[in-house]
Amino acid sequence: MTLPSIAEQITETGSVVVHDVLSPADVAEAKSALMTAIEKEGEYHRTRGSGHQHRDYAMVLVCSLYGRIFIDLLANPRFIEPFNGVLGPGCIVYAYTSSSMPPRGGNYSTRVHVDSPRIIPGYITNMGSTILLDDFTADNGATYYLPGSQLRADAPSAEELLSNGKRVIAPAGSVWFFNARVWHAGGENKTDKWRHALTVNMCRPFMKQRIDIPRVMSGMDLTGVPEVALQKLGFRAQVPASYDEYYAPPEKRTYTQAVE
User: Fold this and answer.
1) CA 55, CA 39: separation in Å to the nearest integer?
2) Is this model's pTM higher than 0.85 or not?
3) How far apart, in whole angstroms, are the C-alpha atoms of residue 108 and residue 59?
């Protein structure tokens, strides 16, 4: 698909599925890294007494903490350009999480919801994506969504979503790009295997991230990380934290990307 046609579908119908965004090798690497990340975050919650009872069980809060594959994805033109075409090249990550369905179950996404609370007619503030690391099927919890619902303030019922909605049925390596105002819900995994996916929500660069990703990643070795990935993670849109940072020369400022 061409970038203009992707942007047109996001604007008009609210979403589009693009195939072959990730190579099979990248899918395999990301899936392995994600399973490790789920275990590590599970241990974090177990030390706080919640474990599998945690309401966001199997959701990795900041995927970019868990391996270069997650960071390098943000430098993949086939993944990034659809966001740039809708939100502008200065857009940054609002949230970078996972959406993995456990065997014979669901996850936090199974409620009918949107990923952005604000409606501004003619102006998209947030754009979401679901990156398929397994084939999405009718049996393993493929996402339901209601086409054209991005300007709808009231939530459709589960019955309406099931009756009038569509599903993201696509092979691993595909990405479902969507206006974050589109009403959607995860399905139920009826199989005996995990169904893995990543979710990236992008926002305008003047907006706050869901969590301060540059600060969370401050202890990581980022040597060799592509500049575009750093920009998308918000490293070039950090608000000054002191007088010295505010009055620093241009090459040392924390907000260095072009104003849009």
Assistant:
1) 15
2) yes
3) 8
Does the 3-252 domain belong in CATH 2.40.30.270?
Answer: no
Tokens standing for residue 77: 């033109």
Task: For residues 145 and 244, give the distance between their C-alpha atoms in angstroms, rounded to a whole number.
Answer: 47
| ∠ Cα 72 239 93 (to 5°) | 30
The length of the chain is: 260
- pLDDT 10s digits, 21-51: 999 999 999 999 999 999 999 888 888 876 5
φ and ψ of 20, to 5 deg: 60, 40
The set of residues, in sequence order, having a beta carbon less than 8 Å from that of 41 and lying 6+ positions away, is 59, 60, 61
Q: Which residue has the tokens 């070039």?
A: 236
How far the first Cα of the chain sits from its last, in Å, is 26
- Within the chain, residue ranges assigned H as helices are 3-12, 24-46, 68-72, 77-87, 158-164, 213-216, 227-232, 243-246
- Assigned token pair, 115: 């990923």
Residues 124, 35: Cα–Cα separation, whole Å:
32
Q: For the segment 180-232, what is each residue's pLDDT rounded down to a tens digit?
A: 999 999 999 999 999 999 999 999 999 999 999 999 999 999 999 999 999 99
Q: Are 76 and 18 in contact (CB under 8 A)?
A: no
Q: 14 near 148, Cβ under 8 Å?
A: yes
Q: Give tens-digit pLDDT for 128-173.
A: 999 999 999 999 999 999 999 999 999 999 999 999 999 999 999 9
